[in-house]
Write a structure and sequence with these properties.
Elements (H helix, E strand, L loop, with lengths): L3 H16 L18 H13 L2 H10 L4 H12 L4 H10 L12 H18 L7 H13 L14 E5 L5 E3 L4 E5 L1 H8 L14 H4 L1
Parallel strand pairs: 1-3
Antiparallel strand pairs: 1-2
Helix pairs in contact: 1-6, 2-4, 2-5, 2-6, 6-7, 7-8
Amino acid sequence: MKDVWTWVHAERAALVADLAEVDAARWETPSLCPGWSVHDVVAHLIDNARTTRLGIVRAMVRARFDFDRQNADGVRRERGATPAETLDRLRAVVTRTTTPPAPLDSRLVEEVVHGEDVRRPLGITHTYAPTAVERALHYQARTSVSMGGAKQRIAGLRLEATDAELALGEAGGTVVRGPAVALLLAASGRTAALDDLSGAGVDALR
């Protein structure tokens, strides 16, 4: 089985390649993250890539243990004066292996979900490694919403991928069916992915 970092590095490199073709003005396109532009999300990914176990503690202290404030501080710190500068910063962290004190599969969630936060509004399509998406979805399913996961959001649902041998949730749960990436996005609170899904459980996610 591939090491998690192999997938993470591949996704970072793929996003760099995709964004290199995007005009500077389009970096201000609203992302799937409310209140954040594409440029902001890229800055957040850079901040995440630079985060260390000790560094996140210091950042949280500075933010008075407000997670949203800590994220906003990171965006301001890593967002360059121009998209080109920010892209260079993303390129520089492609192979980093530092991480906050969280399971490594959380890095897959960051790269896949935020990758789609950026790509979908820009009309960019990308094929993710199926196993990376599967591991990210399993991580979200067992992680509390308060910690950025989806456990409570998908309680009582049965998530069934149409493009992979993947099913999560109770056997008798209300079914939500669709591509694995769309399931991951919807479980992570991205309503933009709901149109890619079907089943009685879609309304519960909405």
